[in-house]
Specification:
heterodimer, A: about 110 residues, mainly beta, four-stranded antiparallel β-sheet, B: about 120 residues, seven-stranded mixed β-sheet
Chain lengths: ~110, ~120
């Protein structure tokens, strides 16, 4: 069962902020939100993760709503190299059990245009 | 971030032969590694979970005798595709989980493109 919903595609102008939404209305209290991206013909790249607080690192910012039912990944200044499929995944952070797996949906194809 | 390598990056083999793909965590120890397969224009599909020193756990529909997984050390897991057929041609990606971090994030290798002729 899909636990997240993302738009299939988005466009963004180079240099502008890219805001990628993700709905996870059935998220549990112990589930993290993870974001990965996959550039064509490469392995997925970890971007960021969060539980309930907003997070920022050198790649992106993650904004999680107060009710935790949705989140937004923000790439502050998109470049052409940010063109990729972005995956939003929810998962518990535990060492075992069937729900520790990262299950990939279809993601959002972000195209950054010059 | 943590680095995961895969070897080879590309391999072409003849139908009926076996191919081994290596996955290494370069700067961290990984008690758990994962193997995914990705067909063109599709998302990643988890094949199996590999735990160091024990048998791998396969997802439903994945033949354990065809896709042999060995995780003999904390930095190396291997996937062997036995008696490969053209339908096994795919992009195989491994992932390693950082056990030492409380959020258990996973890092992925660059993938191996397998073509069976």
């Amino acid at each position: 069962d899909a636990k997240t919903t993302q738009p299939p595609s988005m466009d963004c102008a180079e240099g502008r902020a890219a805001n990628l939404p993700c709905n996870h209305s059935t998220i549990s209290g112990n589930e993290y939100v993870y974001w990965y991206r996959q550039i064509h013909s490469q392995g997925p790249q970890y971007i960021i993760h969060g539980l309930k607080n907003n997070e920022t690192n050198e790649m992106a910012s993650l904004i999680i709503t107060e009710d935790r039912k949705s989140s937004t990944l923000i790439l502050p200044h998109a470049t052409l190299r940010d063109t990729a499929v972005y995956y939003c995944i929810v998962r518990v952070a535990s060492s075992g059990g069937s729900n520790y797996k990262l299950t990939f949906g279809k993601g959002t194809l972000l195209t950054v245009n010059p | 971030g943590a680095v995961v390598s895969q070897h080879p990056s590309r391999v072409i083999c003849k139908s009926g032969t076996s191919v081994k793909i290596e996955c290494r965590s370069l700067d961290f120890q990984a008690t758990t590694m994962f193997w995914y397969r990705q067909f063109p224009k599709k998302s990643l599909m988890l094949m199996a979970t590999s735990n160091e020193g024990s048998k791998a756990t396969y997802e439903q529909g994945v033949e354990k005798d065809k896709f042999l997984i060995n995780h003999a050390s904390l930095t190396l897991s291997t996937l062997t595709v036995t008696s490969a057929h053209p339908e096994d041609s795919s992009f195989y990606i491994c992932s390693a989980r950082v056990s030492a971090r409380p959020s258990y994030e996973q890092y992925f290798g660059p993938g191996t493109r397998l073509t069976v002729t």
